[in-house]
Specification:
alpha/beta; five-stranded mixed sheet; 28% strand; globular
Length: 118
C-alpha cells in the first residue's frame, strides 16, 4: 500500500526527576468531537504494531497521521491521531496514567469502519 498522507512524530510523555508524566489531554478533546480508542494488553501483544498498521492504512487513504512515540523505546508507538477524522488510538496500559484518567471523557465509538471527515 502506498503511503500518501503526511506524518508527524512526537512524544506525549516523559520520564522526569518527578516521575513519569503523560499528557494525552493535549492530543484530543472529546468536547470537540474527538474519539479515543484505548488499547489494553500485556507486553508483546502487538499494541504498537497495531497502531503502526492503522497509521499506514490512514496514510494510504491520503490522511495525515500524527504518531506518538514511546519515551522508553522511540521505535515503538504509544499512539496516533488522525486529525481529519478526529480519532486517536492510544496505549492504555501502565504507566500511561493520563490515558486511564481521561478515557471517561470520550464516549464509546462503534467500530463501523472509516467515515469520511466533512
Amino acid at each position: 500500500m502506498q503511503e500518501n498522507g503526511k506524518t508527524s512524530h512526537f512524544f506525549l510523555s516523559a520520564n522526569t526527576p518527578q516521575g513519569f508524566i503523560s499528557r494525552p489531554e493535549q492530543l484530543y478533546n472529546a468536547r470537540d468531537g474527538w474519539r479515543a480508542y484505548i488499547l489494553k494488553g500485556g507486553p508483546g501483544t502487538g499494541k504498537s504494531h497495531f497502531i503502526e498498521k492503522v497509521g499506514k492504512a490512514m496514510q494510504g487513504l491520503d490522511m495525515n497521521v500524527e504518531y506518538i512515540h514511546c519515551t522508553s523505546d522511540s521505535s515503538a508507538y504509544d499512539g496516533l491521531a488522525v486529525p481529519a477524522l478526529k480519532v486517536c488510538v492510544l496505549d492504555g496500559t501502565p504507566p500511561h496514567e493520563g490515558v486511564r484518567k481521561h478515557k471517561k471523557s470520550c464516549s464509546p465509538a462503534p467500530c463501523a469502519g472509516v467515515r469520511s471527515a466533512s
